[in-house]
Structure prediction request, 94 residues.
Amino acid sequence: MREVREETGLEAEIEQQLGAITYWFARRDAEGRARRVWKRVRFFLMRSRGGRFRDRDREMDAVRWFSLDEAERAAAFASERQLVRRARALLTGG
Prediction:
């Protein structure tokens, strides 16, 4: 919840865990050598309880709301689209 507050400016509470995505990516170290980094991102269905986007830190380039349909279309990877579909099922009871 702290990360959500810092990165979006919104106060939110967790309703349910949606799942996690793990992947590898490459990053250059101080000497310019490529290093593999393993990352796990956990996703949660959350309910907004207040706050404003303009009160966020500047770590994120942009923050905005999406409808579920827009979120599914905007998701870059199949694993992300699957999480959006899971959120839709939880919200609609389907």
